[in-house]
Amino acid sequence: MDIEEMKFTVSDEGAIKKVTIQEIKPCVVAQNKIRVLLQLDSEIKDVIPILVSRYPPGRVNYIENKVILTLNVNDRLVTLYPSGKVSMNKTINKEDAIEVITAIVGDINECFNEYEKGETQIEGKKISQIGPLTIYNCLPKTDCEECGEATCMAFSIKLLSGDVKLNQCLPLAKTGKIDCLKEIMGIQLMQKLGWENQI
Ligand code: SF4
Description:
binds iron/sulfur cluster; TATA-Binding Protein; globular; seven-stranded antiparallel beta sheet; 2 domains; 3-methyladenine DNA Glycosylase II, Chain A, domain 3; 199 residues; alpha+beta
């Protein structure tokens, strides 16, 4: 197939507008699925550290010294490289790949806007260091189940995957523990994880 036929417009405005599918191979981890290599039409080195903060910490793996970000989204791994290269596994077909990368490019383009305005507040390194135990140590640790989870640790794990919202821990607002979370996460990430109370 001609390379032009594999070039797709994924955004009408923003730094990234087009994506080219460069290679399609069988996926080695999922039968009947494919692994797709894509190339964005711009490098993304400056915005990958910002993009890290747009996803729940449990869904990202960020290698800071290489500026490589892997997202666990849409039941697959999507790895983004500084050059704008992207690899995506467990994909159904090229239309599926384009649908997923279009959503990610939307986030990337917003990150470019933030970057240009100097509005970035979250360090990718800080986020990549947040694990379930970090969250757990800042929760009330009463296992009261008001959030719908059996334990505070279960809540911490689901929080990092984006499966529960921070606001669901009702006792959190009534305790000084909220300051602990503010210190380790920062307000922007707390809001990303579903903290809607006044901070
Ligand atoms: S509501 Fe908060 S304190 Fe209670 S179990 Fe859930 S996370 Fe723990």
